[in-house]
Structures are given as C-alpha cells and as structure tokens.
C-alpha cells in the first residue's frame, strides 16, 4: 500500500511589488524528486516565469486559487495574507505572518486560523536543532535597505526633502550599485553610516553595500550586542548620515533614537536618514519610535516629525 504524497501549494503573493517566491523552480524540482506533490499558482509579479515551474513537473493552478485547494494540501507563501479579510483559514499555511510579537492586527490573523481550524507554521520561528533561525532576513535585505537609504540621502541633498521615487527592481546587483553611486554624484565617499546588528546576515549586507558605493571603512560603524549593551538612546547615531537598524527584536529594549533626543539635538544633528530594515513599526517594543507608518515600494520614505 503506497502512502499519499505530501502536497504543497505555492500561492501567489498579493503585496504590491512583491516579486520574491517562497519556492524556486530548482527547489520545487528537488521536492518533486523526493516524492512531494507540488502545485504552483500563476503570479504575474513573481520573478520566476510560470513555465520554469511547469518545465520541472509542477502542476499549474490559476492565480489566487489556493482557497479551493484540498484541505490536506499545505499552502506556502512568503509574506502575510491580505488584511481586511476575516474569512476562516482551514488549511495549513507556511509563511511570515508577523503576528507572534504583538504586531498590529495579530489578533485578527490568528482568529482566522481559529475559525477555520487551520494551522500556521510561521517561518520567522523555524529553527534548526540548536535553536538558530533557518528562514531569516538575509544578506540582501540589508544590502537593498542600505541602498534605499543612500538613495534617500541623495534625494535630501538634492533639495527633494528626501522623498524618493517608487523603487523598482534592478536587473542585477551591479546595476543597483552603479545607480546608487550615480545618485550620490559618483561615490559615497565622505558619508558616515552606522549599522546596528552588523554581525548578522542582514547587517553584513548593509555594510557590504556601503563599501561597494565607496564609503571609507573608517566611516562605516559596525555595532552589535556589545556596543548597544549600555542602552540607548545613542548620541553616536545622531553623528552619522545614515543609520541602519538590522537587529532581531525579541524583547523590550531602550530606544536607539527617540523624538526627544532628535528635538534636543536641533541643528547639531548630522543624522539625515534612518533605514529600519528590522521594521518593528507596530511592535510595542519598537526601538525606533520616531515614526508609526510602514513605507512601501511605491512610497519608500516618510518624513520624521521632530517635536
């Protein structure tokens, strides 16, 4: 008697400008070879063409058709499901749900699973045998975030108030580096940047971007647990042009920078751009409580109101 193969269903991503996929064609092929049944939804935004999945043997399904999948099928996605939907979720879902650290809206997310008797396997809490996260913000999250910060800095220097045009994907890393350098007038030399969480994967990416756009090594301040142990707010953050936050937040900590600190600094503040890659905006422990809205690809910056 043969057992029924485990069925996985790669759903479409519904967040604007989201081109990433939780399952690549290469990995799909490995799972198929291992005996899994793989269904992939059509998604015009996905970076991988649907024919790449078809070519390796995946079953193709229409866009956003996963609610009709058999209940024994596990639904795989990357980002959270669309808000303002309270329909029950009877399937098992694998995704980043952003609801287990008291983020805004967490109750409604978990309520949907409760009503549908489904299960949530949150990728943020997937760990290996020694308790280390398996699916975490990687090198290129910090790399791209630092690039966006440098672009915002250039916009501020150009008299545009730091307002950045919608961000669109680059064909490759070098194209992004060249564009950032061009916006900075040819190089980032002379800029000062501070990266908190610099020893992690995300932080190393931010540091690498700053190197590749021309910052001097001595102008890239690499902070991690040792440097932040004394507790913020930190004057050092106000003394650089770009501050990048790449930490993993799991508990309450003193803020790295505060509205009162910005106000007291006045014109003595060098800090021009904050890049919050960690993005704990709606977390009650948010260590950067100077803004309260999430930016998007089409509106990537928000002006900080200094009291």
Question: Describe it for me?
Answer:
It is built from nine helices and ten strands. The chain is α/β, with parallel strands linked by helices. Strands 3-2-1-4-5-6 form a six-stranded parallel sheet, sandwiched between helices. Helix 4 packs parallel to helix 5 (173-183) and helix 4 (139-157) crosses helix 6. The model has no long low-confidence stretch (mean pLDDT 92).
* Count of alpha/pi helices: 9
Separation, N- and C-terminal Cα atoms: 71 Å
Strand ordering within the main sheet: 3-2-1-4-5-6
Total beta-strand segments = 10
Enumerate the spans where pLDDT stays under 50 for 5 or more consecutive residues. Answer: none
Percentage of residues in DSSP E strands: 5-15%
Main sheet makeup: 6 strands, parallel
Mean pLDDT: 92
Shape: globular
Name the helicity range: 25-40%
Instruction: Decide which structural class fits the backbone.
Output: alpha/beta
Rg of Cα set: 21 Å
Order of helices and strands: EHEHEEEHEHHEHEHHEHE
Key traits:
27% helix, four-stranded parallel beta sheet, 307 residues, alpha/beta, six-stranded parallel beta sheet
A few lines on this structure:
The chain has helices spanning 25-33, 50-55, 106-116, 139-157, 173-183, 201-212, 225-228, 235-238, 259-265, and strands at residues 7-10, 37-41, 59-61, 74-76, 92-95, 119-122, 193-196, 220-223, 242-245, 273-276.
List the helices and strands and how they pair.
Blueprint: E1 7-10, H1 25-33, E2 37-41, H2 50-55, E3 59-61, E4 74-76, E5 92-95, H3 106-116, E6 119-122, H4 139-157, H5 173-183, E7 193-196, H6 201-212, E8 220-223, H7 225-228, H8 235-238, E9 242-245, H9 259-265, E10 273-276
Parallel strand pairs: 1-2, 1-4, 2-3, 4-5, 5-6, 7-8, 7-9, 9-10
